[in-house]
Each structure stands twice: as structure tokens, then as C-alpha cells.
Amino acid sequence: MHKLVVLYSEPADPDHFRDYYVTNHLPLVMNWPGLLAWRYSFDVAATEGEAPYFAVFEGDFADAAAMAAARASPYGQRLAADVANYATGGAVILHYPVHEGTG
């Protein structure tokens, strides 16, 4: 599995961010070809001090190639372009292979 994580900094208008994200952006995410599972939160906290991020998104893909194809697709480009409509504080995008463990 390959994970895509988006870390959103504090936006200029948190209420607009939440509303736009849920009403407009997530419906696009739900139909992103190649995306196996996704999750998000607006309740980001740090174990000590203030959290440097306002919100987080996690998306799961079968592998790095599937994620790259999804991001490069016209649909993926539309998703990326939509970020400017709500993420006025900016976003950090990370991705990595996931290694499973037990116990």
C-alpha cells in the first residue's frame, strides 16, 4: 500500500475551509480513480504544544504507481487545482510506502 498525506496549515477563514472541504472537495475525492480508502480530520492536536496543522487528509493507494497515475490524471489535476479554493494557509503533501506490522 502507498499512502498520500496532506497537512493543511491554518487557513485565513477556518469556517470557509471546513464548509468548502466537506461540501465541494470531498465529493471530488470520493470519486478519485485509484483511491482505495480515505480519511480526514479537522481535530489535529499535538502531544505537546500547539499543532502546526489545522487539518489532515490520508489517502490509500495500491502502490506508488497507482498514486502517481491518479495524481497525474485529469481528475487528479482537478483535485489539486481545487485546493486553492479553501486552503489559504497552504498544504504540505507527503507520500510513502506503508509497511504493515502486528503486535
Describe this structure in words.
By secondary structure, the chain is α+β, with helices and mostly antiparallel strands. About 35% of the residues lie in helices and about 25% in strands. The protein is built from three helices and four strands, in the order βαββααβ. It has a four-stranded antiparallel sheet with strand order 2-3-1-4. Helix 2 (about 65-70) crosses helix 3. The protein is globular and about 35 Å long.
In a few lines, what is going on in this structure?
The protein has 103 residues and is of the alpha+beta class. The protein has helices at 14-30, 64-72, 74-82, and strands at residues 2-8, 37-41, 55-61, 91-97. Helix 2 crosses helix 3 (74-82).
Topology at a glance:
Layout: E1 2-8, H1 14-30, E2 37-41, E3 55-61, H2 64-72, H3 74-82, E4 91-97
Antiparallel strand pairs: 1-3, 1-4, 2-3
Helix pairs in contact: 2-3
Fill in the keyword field for this structure:
103 residues; alpha+beta; 4 strands; globular
Mean pLDDT: 95
Q: What characterizes the major β-sheet?
A: 4 strands, antiparallel
Quaternary state reads: single chain
End-to-end distance: 19 Å
Rg (CA only): 14 Å
| SS-derived structural category | alpha+beta
Strand content: 25-35%
- Percent helix range: 25-40%
| Unreliable parts | none
Shape: globular
What is the H/E string? Answer: EHEEHHE
The number of helical segments is 3
In total, the number of strands is 4
Domain EthD: 10-88
InterPro entries: Dimeric_a/b-barrel, EthD_dom
Protein name: EthD family reductase
